[in-house]
Amino acid sequence: MVENRPFLNFLTHLVLILGIATVVFPVYLAFIASTRGPTEFMSGLVPLTPGDHFLDNYGTLLGAGSTRAGTLPFLSMLGNSLIMAVLVAVGKIAISIISAFAIVYFRFPGRVIAFWLIFMTLMLPIEVRILPTYKVIADLGMLNSYSGLVIPVIASATATFLFRQFFLTIPEEMMEAARVDGAGPMKFFWDILLPLSRTNIAALFIIMFIFGWNQYLWPLLITTEPQYYTVVMGIKRLAAVLDGDTQWNLVMTGVILAALPPVLVIIFMQRLFVKGLVETEK
Amino acid sequence: MASINVENVGKIYTGGVRAVSGIELDIADGEFIVLVGPSGCGKSTLLRMIAGLESISEGEVKIGPRVVNNVEPADRDIAMVFQNYALYPHMTVKQNLEYGLKNRKTPREEIDTRVAEAARMLEIGQYLERKPKALSGGQRQRVAMGRAIVRKPAVFLFDEPLSNLDAKLRVSMRGEIKRLQRRLGTTSIYVTHDQLEAMTLADRLVVLNGGKIEQVGAPLEVYHAPASTFVASFIGSPAMNLVKAELHGDRLAIGPAMIDLKGFAPTSGAVTVGMRAEDLRLVEAGDNALPFRLEYAEELGSQRLVHGTVGDQSVTAAVSPETPLTPEMSFTIDPRRLHFFDKETGKRLAGGIPAEARLAPVEPVI
């Protein structure tokens, strides 16, 4: 498809630029809004240039929180989200890689059933089982705790399935060579399987981190104490002011702050991801 | 260094599929044994049972004096070279070589000496810091062998190690494996489906078919006195001609032709007769000659293979490249070079000149 036609070049670039603009423009607007004062949205005109309240807005939100909406400092909510997202991502990967290892490399009764049970839960989103799960967590006294936030969402059928598929592509001779080389099952896992899975782990970490970060309904249900609020809930609280006008500048500041960590994770992990792709065997 | 005794070994997979049965094999210390047979004959299964990668359903495998049926592969004092090399892709060549030794808690200095020694022997010294993906097929093959050598095992097991290489490299690596085995004197078992590889490498060949041993013997023994029609057609290229024939007293009828056996008739009645392509000699039509109708010829450079029919049975003969090709040709054969097989069972009845006698030129009797 290497063709040198000026018109086609122009057209493809136009489509690309339009596409990017469609995606980026709302984000840009959010950023602009986060640099403006509280009254500048009342006129109905949306400004397109940065204002001079950047430090004000971010300082207020990170430091004291919005007094009018009665939220906590965003910093503590960001912290909660980070704890939750990291624990969820690490936990999901750790659990699913071990289950996939068991399913692929060990012969035990009920192996196939175990796999299909895991596979079937792929179809069930959290929302389907949210009430029974809530009941269980409540009975265990885990409301308003990090374990309550993390544990119910920590098992991942998707990740188990992906690791299983990946392990199946590793030639069986690799395991046999390791056996002849005197590596037991766990040594094989640590020395061979884990390094080979690096790329998959990086990719899954990105996906699972964002999954954990974006959890909304579950934290909303089980946290009633502000010290356990996550940032996604925080935005909701900023926006839903009972009396008076919503401070859109602060809401947008919150949105930008909440969007930043996942972006950083992607940028950072992307490098590892690409490196892994380049380095591993074919 | 160890001898290996395989006693009445069989393998039954779950579901009752029998892959191997009744294998009896005694392998002397330092011997190079090649297991050869078509795909699905159980040769790999047998090797993997000796390696410990496959459980042994029946019988006993001894390595040295020890019965190893329930011993982990790592504790059997064996090293294995796999068909796809099975190098660890994330480790450098050096780490690949070291891995087995490290797992055995070998002291550092010892590891370094052994790796250096193996690298020198296999000429892979300059690749030690590379990863396997940066190596060519032949180099990977060397590393896989290096990984076996550094362990100084009692037994080497090779599972079709050369089948992923191109033809030229295969020949040179074949020589190298043989040389290395001679030098180290390690007992080796080598699995292949390539009869040429089997012939050139083996001290003794084990021909397997349908999970059973058909014949065990030195390559020339097997070549000159195949125990069955299966071995006869499997070992040697081109494959031995096997034709239906009838013995009438001292005369052998192959289709329309009669051959005087000059007292070499082993039995009477219907038999299967085997003739090596190179044992057929071009003659003028007449008595004792097989009328041959040419179908096509293959040029091998050093010789020319002519394919055609005698009566209604196909026959291949090797002739010199100068031989003129005519639609009708005639061949004859020294009766001592005929192989007789039972028509029903395919078992060898008699015939063929013993391997020792083959080494000296045989005076033609016709």
Automatic annotation (TrEMBL), chain A:
<comment type="subunit">
    <text>The complex is composed of two ATP-binding proteins (UgpC), two transmembrane proteins (UgpA and UgpE) and a solute-binding protein (UgpB).</text>
</comment>
<keyword id="KW-0997">Cell inner membrane</keyword>
<feature type="transmembrane region" description="Helical">
    <location>
        <begin position="82"/>
        <end position="106"/>
    </location>
</feature>
<keyword id="KW-1003">Cell membrane</keyword>
<protein>
    <recommendedName>
        <fullName>sn-glycerol-3-phosphate transport system permease protein UgpE</fullName>
    </recommendedName>
</protein>
<dbReference type="GO" id="GO:0005886">
    <property type="term" value="C:plasma membrane"/>
</dbReference>
<dbReference type="GO" id="GO:0055085">
    <property type="term" value="P:transmembrane transport"/>
</dbReference>
<feature type="transmembrane region" description="Helical">
    <location>
        <begin position="188"/>
        <end position="211"/>
    </location>
</feature>
<feature type="domain" description="ABC transmembrane type-1">
    <location>
        <begin position="78"/>
        <end position="269"/>
    </location>
</feature>
<keyword id="KW-0813">Transport</keyword>
<keyword id="KW-1133">Transmembrane helix</keyword>
<feature type="transmembrane region" description="Helical">
    <location>
        <begin position="146"/>
        <end position="167"/>
    </location>
</feature>
<keyword id="KW-0812">Transmembrane</keyword>
<dbReference type="InterPro" id="IPR035906">
    <property type="entry name" value="MetI-like_sf"/>
</dbReference>
<dbReference type="InterPro" id="IPR000515">
    <property type="entry name" value="MetI-like"/>
</dbReference>
<feature type="transmembrane region" description="Helical">
    <location>
        <begin position="248"/>
        <end position="269"/>
    </location>
</feature>
<feature type="transmembrane region" description="Helical">
    <location>
        <begin position="113"/>
        <end position="134"/>
    </location>
</feature>
<comment type="function">
    <text>Part of the ABC transporter complex UgpBAEC involved in sn-glycerol-3-phosphate (G3P) import. Probably responsible for the translocation of the substrate across the membrane.</text>
</comment>
<keyword id="KW-0472">Membrane</keyword>
<feature type="transmembrane region" description="Helical">
    <location>
        <begin position="7"/>
        <end position="33"/>
    </location>
</feature>
<dbReference type="Pfam" id="PF00528">
    <property type="entry name" value="BPD_transp_1"/>
</dbReference>
<comment type="similarity">
    <text>Belongs to the binding-protein-dependent transport system permease family.</text>
</comment>
TrEMBL record, chain B:
<dbReference type="InterPro" id="IPR003439">
    <property type="entry name" value="ABC_transporter-like_ATP-bd"/>
</dbReference>
<keyword id="KW-0813">Transport</keyword>
<dbReference type="GO" id="GO:0001407">
    <property type="term" value="P:glycerophosphodiester transmembrane transport"/>
</dbReference>
<dbReference type="GO" id="GO:0008643">
    <property type="term" value="P:carbohydrate transport"/>
</dbReference>
<dbReference type="InterPro" id="IPR003593">
    <property type="entry name" value="AAA+_ATPase"/>
</dbReference>
<dbReference type="GO" id="GO:0005524">
    <property type="term" value="F:ATP binding"/>
</dbReference>
<keyword id="KW-0997">Cell inner membrane</keyword>
<dbReference type="InterPro" id="IPR027417">
    <property type="entry name" value="P-loop_NTPase"/>
</dbReference>
<dbReference type="GO" id="GO:0015794">
    <property type="term" value="P:glycerol-3-phosphate transmembrane transport"/>
</dbReference>
<keyword id="KW-1278">Translocase</keyword>
<dbReference type="GO" id="GO:0055052">
    <property type="term" value="C:ATP-binding cassette (ABC) transporter complex, substrate-binding subunit-containing"/>
</dbReference>
<dbReference type="InterPro" id="IPR017871">
    <property type="entry name" value="ABC_transporter-like_CS"/>
</dbReference>
<comment type="similarity">
    <text>Belongs to the ABC transporter superfamily.</text>
</comment>
<keyword id="KW-0547">Nucleotide-binding</keyword>
<keyword id="KW-1003">Cell membrane</keyword>
<dbReference type="GO" id="GO:0140359">
    <property type="term" value="F:ABC-type transporter activity"/>
</dbReference>
<protein>
    <submittedName>
        <fullName>Carbohydrate ABC transporter ATP-binding protein (CUT1 family)</fullName>
    </submittedName>
</protein>
<dbReference type="InterPro" id="IPR047641">
    <property type="entry name" value="ABC_transpr_MalK/UgpC-like"/>
</dbReference>
<keyword id="KW-0067">ATP-binding</keyword>
<keyword id="KW-0472">Membrane</keyword>
<dbReference type="InterPro" id="IPR015855">
    <property type="entry name" value="ABC_transpr_MalK-like"/>
</dbReference>
<dbReference type="GO" id="GO:0016887">
    <property type="term" value="F:ATP hydrolysis activity"/>
</dbReference>
